[in-house]
């Protein structure tokens, strides 16, 4: 009996390590689904220099086969490996983001969280994405919704397996005063619409407060982010995290810190 079980575990481990894993056979493995959305710093540019990723994966971002999965662009679960957004943010070179660290750190904080399924949906592309590009009905919004629903549909327990949205965006809204002043309204509407469309009105959301941005209206956007007073929306701060030499993106060590902050913030939601 024990040998048989070991064999099954081995067979599963081999299945999981295959790219484009077809999960039809074990739909209820993933216990906790997390949606990752926003722009380049969520997608991940740690270790990217001149359009090339250096391939360095920090210890904290190493894969945990069979414990951390990611939903591929083709909507199947596969072993999660950096760069998490490589088949989603396809017009940019992706590197280290906060997602893997988040999952590994959360497993340490709360081993009972079970198998984690990460659903990468952030798109930074070359120019970044503004909050207006994430409004209901847009390409990015629809993709996020479609991927969230697909991930939930693969699991017994359905959409209640979706535990939180991790959101890091706003840098592209710091360029002009109109975008900055409309930011709070657009952000709240985005959160509210997404919760309604997922039929998860209490879905926990953890957002990141910008440290700086692409334009001069950083403080206005930060204020808007801190001004969101919807239930179950938490904020963590990117201020003080180290940047890449391009001075535009968070470095891999910064992403390790940020992913850990995400995990602590989520663990504190109880
Ligand atoms: C996944 O596997 C099931 C059962 O083996 C099969 O019916 C289905 O077509 C497969 N799906 C894909 C996308 O390969
Ligand atoms: C990146 O490009 C700049 C300007 O072309 C160059 O000075 C620098 O050496 C390059 N860095 C790497 C790591 O290739
Ligand atoms: C990538 O670029 C192509 C061509 O400009 C565009 O059609 C597509 O929407 C872009 N995809 C993403 C994810 O940015
Ligand atoms: C990445 O995040 C940092 C910290 O918030 C910010 O200064 C930077 O502008 C962001 N980069 C981009 C390209 O959005």
From TrEMBL:
Keywords, in A-Z order: Hydrolase, Signal
Recorded GO MF terms: hydrolase activity
Methyltransferase is among the record's keywords: no
TM spans (from-to): none
InterPro entries from the UniProt entry: Carb_Esterase_6, SASA, SGNH_hydro_sf
Signal peptide annotation: 1-18
SUPFAM superfamilies: SGNH hydrolase
Domain Sialate O-acetylesterase, residue spans: 32-267
Entry protein name: Probable carbohydrate esterase At4g34215
Gene name linked to the record: LOC113727661
């Amino acid at each position: 009996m024990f040998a048989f079980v070991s064999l099954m575990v081995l067979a599963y481990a081999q299945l999981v390590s295959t790219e484009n894993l077809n999960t039809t056979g074990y739909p209820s493995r993933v216990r906790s689904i997390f949606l990752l959305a926003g722009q380049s710093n969520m997608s991940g540019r740690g270790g990217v220099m001149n359009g090339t990723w250096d391939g360095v994966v920090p210890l904290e971002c190493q894969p945990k086969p069979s414990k951390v999965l990611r939903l591929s662009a083709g909507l199947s679960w596969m072993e999660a490996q950096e760069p998490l957004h490589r088949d989603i943010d396809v017009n940019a070179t992706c590197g280290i983001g906060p997602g893997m660290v988040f999952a590994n750190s959360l497993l340490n904080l709360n081993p009972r969280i079970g198998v984690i399924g990460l659903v990468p949906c952030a798109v930074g592309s070359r120019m970044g994405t503004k909050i207006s590009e994430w409004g209901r009905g847009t390409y990015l919004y629809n993709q996020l919704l479609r991927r969230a629903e697909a991930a939930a549909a693969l699991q017994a327990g359905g959409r209640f397996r979706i535990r939180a949205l991790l959101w890091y965006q706003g840098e592209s809204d710091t360029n002009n005063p109109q975008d900055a002043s409309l930011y709070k309204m657009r952000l709240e509407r985005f959160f509210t619409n997404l919760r309604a469309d997922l039929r998860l009105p209490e879905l926990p959301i953890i957002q990141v407060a910008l440290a700086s941005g692409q334009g001069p209206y950083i403080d206005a956007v930060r204020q808007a982010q801190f001004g969101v007073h919807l239930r179950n929306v938490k904020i963590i701060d990117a201020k003080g995290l180290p940047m890449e030499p391009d001075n535009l993106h968070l470095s891999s060590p910064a992403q390790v810190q940020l992913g850990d902050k995400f995990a602590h913030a989520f663990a504190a939601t109880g």
